[in-house]
Hints:
By secondary structure, the protein is mainly alpha-helical. The protein contains twelve helices and no strands. The longest helix is centred in the first third of the chain and has 20 residues.
Amino acid sequence: MVYLSVKPSANIQSLFSIASTFLKIFLIDFITFATLKKIIMFNKNIKLVLAGLIIAFAIYQFTESNIGNGIFLILLSTIFIFLYFKNEMILLAFLKLRKQDMDGAKKWLDKIKNPESALVRKQQGYYNYLNGIMVSQTNLNLAEKFFKKAIELGLSMDQDLALAKLQLAGIAMTKRRKMEANNLLTEAKKLDKHGMLKDQIKMMKEQMKRI
């Protein structure tokens, strides 16, 4: 029996090579990335401009029959589009916060000098949300301000919105604003569709009975 050695065409090999290169670039170890001492944050509009230029050059590559290059450039442009909607400093701050590293999270957030111009609306919401979490143990007035601003700007996930309202309910209860706290707890319960905050809400309602 004769076995034939079948090799993929040059175009297929090129596409495999491009896909492999893209994965190495895009799926970089995020933890390693987070340990870098200095990361340059681009303004959100610059990210869109870069994405637009890359897409334009990708189209040019397609017209020149450089299909592989065009595909790679389209994939590359998605990185800048993703970072337009999900700011890299916010992502890194979340990563630090998950490790209970408040100082590390604050360092990343402090790199955002002008959130209004650097971030889209909902990312501004998360900027305030994260700041609220970090100061909630030391400055209730400032935390309340941050959480209210986060809710006003909007948060992508109901669970985050529920937590923000739960935090505000706790602050209102501390200041003996019982009716406001009760309303916020009701809103938080509606948003907590998976019951992740069920115990905290129940405990806070029990505490309110003693006020």
